[in-house]
Amino acid sequence: MSTTSNSKVPPVPESSQPRGVAGRLRHFKERALSSKRQHQGRPKPNLSMTLRTWHKRFGLFAFVFMGWLGFSGFLINQSADWGYDTTPISAQWVMSLYGLHPEPPTKGYTAGGHWLTEAQDATMLDGKPIATRIPQQIGMAVGGPADKPLLFVAESAKVFVLSPVGERVDEMSGYMLPISNVRRIGSIAGNPSKVVIQDLDAFVTVDGLSWDKLPVNSPVEWSAPTDLPEAQRSAALPYSKPSVTLEHVLVDAHSGRIFGIGGAWLINLVGIASIVLSVSGIWIVVRTNRQRNASRR
């Protein structure tokens, strides 16, 4: 008695990859035909679809930059109220964007073995910053007795009296001086304890409390700018860092000019993108309203 098996023989799997040159060509034609059918099934692009596409692209491009422009513009408007117009920024990476580097002073004034100069951040006496800023200094002379010398530093309308270590002893201006404008300062030749200041006439003092008119043609050694020794320049270097105000940085960052011509053109492109967004946005709204009204009729 014969028996018949109910088991089925599994089909031989076909290779997913076509074999031979003819098979590959047939497979390529089928894929090309399928892609063509899918492309034919899509709606043809029109002006509205094109504007929507570019509206999205320009929107993504301008999104981050428009946010920064709005935020930086707000800070610039508040600059005077929040003190940004006077806040100095001296970070090295910011200065490098402006091409600025520390530059110590090259000139100064010397008298009685002391050196005076003006750095970016401080008035320096003998290589050390002093508490009193004298940014418009025009000369220095030594007065007073030999055991207690005083340093007289002149500006155009003031004379500062300092101790040998830079402490301010006095500040004279206005009626405290015999002249209204100080053109130069110096000392009597051969008698450095007598300080002389001059406008049209010259006056001499020892302690700064009393002034006497100096006879014409008196020998005076006038203070003049002198090349600083290398040691004085090196000491002034840490106080010679350039700086710009925070408001200046914000304005340049807002316009893109802090990054040079490339940054400025990038902001220009953001402006162009904003114009495209405005025009395309208006067109899309008008077009959508027309289609909505036409469908209601």
Strand order in the largest sheet:
5-4-3-2-15
Uncertain runs with pLDDT below 50, 5 residues or more?
A: 1-7
| Secondary-structure element series | HHHEHEEEEEEEEEEEEEEHEHH
Please outline the major beta sheet.
Answer: 5 strands, antiparallel
DSSP strand content: 15-25%
Count of beta strands: 16
What's the rounded overall pLDDT mean? 80
Number of helical segments with 4 or more residues = 7
Morphology call: elongated
State the helical fraction. 25-40%
Give the termini separation. 83 Å
Whole-angstrom Rg:
41 Å
* Classification by helices and strands: alpha+beta
Domain count: 2
Topology, please?
Layout (H helix, E strand, L loop, with lengths): L19 H22 L5 H31 L1 H4 L5 E2 L2 H7 L8 E5 L2 E5 L4 E3 L2 E2 L9 E5 L6 E5 L3 E5 L5 E6 L10 E5 L2 E8 L3 E4 L6 E2 L6 E3 L3 E2 L2 H7 L7 E2 H10 L4 H37 L1
Antiparallel strand pairs: 1-16, 2-3, 2-15, 3-4, 4-5, 6-7, 7-8, 8-9, 10-11, 10-14, 11-12, 12-13
Helix pairs in contact: 2-6, 2-7
Can you put this structure into words, describing what you see?
Helix content is 40%, strand content 22%. By secondary structure, the chain is an alpha+beta fold. The chain has 2 domains: 72-99 and 244-296, no CATH class; 107-239, no CATH class. The model is unreliable at 1-7 (pLDDT under 50).
What is the structure about, briefly put?
By secondary structure, the chain is α+β, with helices and mostly antiparallel strands. The chain has helices spanning 20-41, 47-77, 79-82, 92-98, 230-236, 246-255, 260-296; strands at residues 88-89, 107-111, 114-118, 123-125, 128-129, 139-143, 150-154, 158-162, 168-173, 184-188, 191-198, 202-205, 212-213, 220-222, 226-227, 244-245.
